[in-house]
Amino acid sequence: MKERCIYCGSEGIIKKGKRKNKYKIFQQYHCKNCRKIFVLKPLKNKTYNVKIILDSLNFYNQGYSLKISADGKIKELLGYSKDISFYDWVIVCSYYSIFHSTQALLGTKRIKINNRLHYATLIAFAKQFIINKELEEELFLIYEDAEEKARELLEIFEKEKEKRGKFQYHRLSRSNIEPAKKSIENAKMFLDSIEKVLANKKII
User: Fold this and answer.
1) Given Cys at both, which of 40, 55, 187, 192 links 94, Cβ 3.0 to 4.6 Å?
2) CA 122 to chain centroid
3) What radius of gyration do the chain's Cα atoms show?
4) 66 and 177 in contact (C-beta within 8 Å)?
5) What is d(CA 80, CA 31) in angstroms, rounded to the nearest whole number?
6) Integer Cα distance of 67 and 64 in angstroms
7) For the residues 20-45, what does the mean pLDDT come to?
8) Is a pLDDT exceeding 70 seen at residue 48?
9) What is the domain partition of the chain in residue ranges?
10) pTM of the model
């Protein structure tokens, strides 16, 4: 993967001398886009710089991720290069909204997941609410096709978990707008259903 500016994400960077401390010599880089000088210090187990992570979360929470990703002028004003998009982080954030709402549902049974957090949460959701048809019974009060809706929610969890793994950890290719839109759609459907179930249980 090509190195990028840690501030604006541009690939237009060149070597600009070296910096040293007591223990090590670091290569400095100059960004042709935002003109900042920096040292590449990737976080452990991360493929994104901190600015992109924080901005992505902020844009997602405000509902602007898709719009900003498609608008070169807005990205320029924010100090990002035109080739940067936030579609991959839309997928990641959508998954986590599904994951945490599932955790809230499991919490109604005092089920706490400690190991293999994401996989175990999926299995616990299937075992405690899908296989025994408990979620179906809860959804019956809300939807006519309760059985289909319950299985659809499990499928959404599985699909978004898989997408999250691909785009957060491996980043094999940049996501485009279609899977990002689908992730938002899936997250909205999942959260709406779980919220109604929790409301019927008078938990929220």
Assistant:
1) 187
2) 17
3) 21
4) yes
5) 11
6) 5
7) 75
8) no
9) 86-200
10) 0.70
Half-sphere exposure of residue 23: CA atoms within 13 angstroms, side-chain side:
0
Task: Report the relative pairing of strands 25-31 and 13-20 from DSSP bridges.
Answer: antiparallel
As a CATH number, domain 86-200 is 1.20.120
The tokens 């959260």 sit on which residue? 191
Q: What's the mean pLDDT in 12-28?
A: 79
Whole-angstrom distance, CA of residue 85 vs CA of residue 174: 8
Q: Among candidates 148, 122, 147, 120, which has minimal Cα distance to 136?
A: 147
The pLDDT value recorded for residue 157 is 96
Under the banding of pLDDT at 50, 70 and 90, the label for residue 182 is very high
Distance from C-alpha of 64 to C-alpha of 57, rounded to nearest angstrom: 10
Residue 54: strand, helix, or coil:
helix
Distance (Å, rounded) from C-alpha 172 to C-alpha 17?
A: 31
Q: Quick one: average pLDDT of 42-60?
A: 66
Burial tier of 42 (Cβ tally within 10 Å: 0-12, 13-18, 19+)? exposed
pLDDT at 47: 53
Q: Are 157 and 122 in contact (CB under 8 A)?
A: yes
